[in-house]
Amino acid sequence: MPEAPNNNIVDYSLTEKNKKSLQFIEDVTSDPDEVQLRVLSDILTQNAAVEYLHRHSLSGQTDRETFKKLIPVITYEDLQPDITRIANGDKSPILSSHPISEFLTSSGTSGGERKLMPTIEAELGRRSLLYSLLMPVMNQFVPGLDKGKGMYFLFVKSESKTPGGLVARPVLTSYYKSNHFKERPYDPYTNYTSPNETILCQDSFQSMYSQMLCGLCLNQEVLRVGAVFASGFIRAIRFLEKHWALLCEDIRTGTMNPMITDPVVKEAMLRVLKPNAPLAEFIERECSKSSWQGIITRIWPNTKYVDVIVTGTMSQYIPTLDYYSNGLPLVCTMYASSECYFGVNLNPLCKSSEVAYTLIPTMAYFEFLPVGADGQDQERKPVDLSEVKLGQDYELVVTTYAGLYRYRVGDVLRVAGFKNKAPQFSFICRKNVALSIDSDKTDEVELHQAIEKASNHLVPFEATLIEYTSFADTTTIPGHYVIFWELSVKGSSTHVPPSVLEDCCIAIEESLNSVYRQGRASDKSIGPLEIRLVEPGTFDKLMDYAISLGASINQYKTPRCVKFAPIIELLNSLVVSNYFSPKCPKWVPGHKQWNNMN
Ligand code: AMP
């Protein structure tokens, strides 16, 4: 009998692997409470000797009742002193019995700085496990994805060191730089158009350029496209819009543009890039058409879906993605954070509005703080995964192997259904986020403080800020914050010079959190902030409109952020002039305190 061709071996083992992954999901969802009890007990056994648990009088007990009785539900601010000690070099087992391997810098901020999430080496394995479930799930709905490549735009961000010498960087940077990603064995499901070297390139322009070039060279092989968040994918398309002529030149000649100077990237690219004049002409023809509608399906004709997160604030990008992709399915595969990777979407081809994530009960011990219809926390007692009720909203609370105990993540989730006995959650919102373009999360208090400070620039002109509101304008690429200002100016002849209003724009940006400033200054994922001055009386009209829609006149407060299209239209119709930030706000990697020490 002739030897079976290699391909079949791959097919066979892939089928087996897929089956195993799906069986794993079946297993852990059939009795999630039992899994959760085991996870909690594992975490508490492993960390029995840590200072934090002892401080709260837990001395070796691993049962749920004692844990819940003794350990408080906390926020980042409660943990900050311990985090600071670890960051400063205290290696004693404060939170985890395993050494803290690094800090993951969350896009959630505290005091304007990224939150630092402790992590341990073993967490990388848990993250890899969650990733390994995604394609077996997807394969049930779109078979044959192993026959081609994924064009994913993935990036690393800069990292810094804490005073005690621990690396601090975003979770994805940590993952892409780990051997779990770099040294992954060949797997048709992690067969990307971008060579690792292009993903790991620190220079964001060179990284994007080379990843796009590879995607274009391999256009016929691409079966799925994506990025982590919708905003990132749209940025890649925008990049193509700006640079297609240069990219086509490289494809025509088979040589790299001299702007690509990173020798490692250059070498990796030469493995992919071959002179291909017909392809260059084809791409040129498509890109020079006046409409970019359906550009994804035109250039990458075998694409089956766009893999990007469009839940939460990212839903604002759905119309743009639909336009570029001619309505291809938008697939949200997973829900994760720096604290912990949470869950997967078991029905990935569902409508974006119906996406629900099944939390994988082995990832961490999950609890749920009920949230009322008015967004307020109801009774303060968190319930377990097995106790949540269909249709109810909850704030997610996690206890992780890395040393977070009953930690409030800040995400509000709604129970949308069940997989076996495990609840599935739709992502409702991140608490207190007023504005977001990319991974930035600006809350009302922060915005208010920034605006108050900036409005001091108006004092010499006898102008005062009467009212303001804001919105995240995603009609521009990248999107940007827009602030509507109504001013009162003493004496009609006085006017505020445009340069002063531009100063106000940059002053607001300088006061915003470091994730915002990094997006503006380094990643260029957020455009310059804009102030739109509106006619006197605009905010009265806004109130009249809200009251006409049923708001109570006694309770009416100016919303500090607006999303409802008719309100934005009303405000826009009353704009008298607009001003943009003339430069990028200052940003340096790391935390303010650490940088001050240098
Ligand atoms: P970070 O701490 O920077 O890793 O960001 C994690 C946060 O991003 C989560 O807590 C959520 O608020 C948000 N996020 C992550 N995945 C999703 C998703 N699939 N849908 C909506 N928001 C998400």
Q: Would you spell out the secondary-structure blueprint of this structure?
A:
Layout: H1 6-30, H2 32-46, H3 51-55, H4 64-70, H5 76-87, E1 102-110, E2 113-119, H6 122-141, E3 149-153, E4 160-161, E5 167-169, H7 171-177, H8 179-182, H9 196-199, H10 204-217, E6 222-229, H11 230-253, H12 263-270, H13 277-287, H14 295-299, E7 305-309, H15 318-325, E8 330-331, E9 334-336, E10 341-344, E11 357-359, E12 365-371, E13 383-384, E14 393-399, E15 407-419, E16 422-430, H16 444-454, E17 463-473, E18 480-489, H17 498-511, H18 514-521, E19 530-534, H19 538-548, H20 565-573, E20 575-580, H21 592-597
Parallel strand pairs: 1-5, 3-6, 6-7, 7-8, 18-19
Antiparallel strand pairs: 1-2, 4-5, 9-10, 10-11, 11-16, 12-13, 12-14, 14-15, 15-16, 17-18, 19-20
Helix pairs in contact: 1-6, 10-11, 11-13, 16-17
The structure holds adenosine monophosphate.
* Major beta-sheet overview: 8 strands, antiparallel
- Give the termini separation: 71 Å
Ligands, ions, cofactors: adenosine monophosphate
The tally of strands reads: 20
Work out the helix count: 21
Question: Proportion of β residues?
Answer: 15-25%
Mean pLDDT: 94
Query: Unreliable segments (pLDDT under 50, ≥5 consecutive)?
Result: 1-7
Strand order of the largest sheet: 9-10-11-16-15-14-12-13
Overall helicity: 25-40%
Q: Quaternary state, please?
A: single chain
Mass-distribution shape: globular
SSE class:
alpha+beta
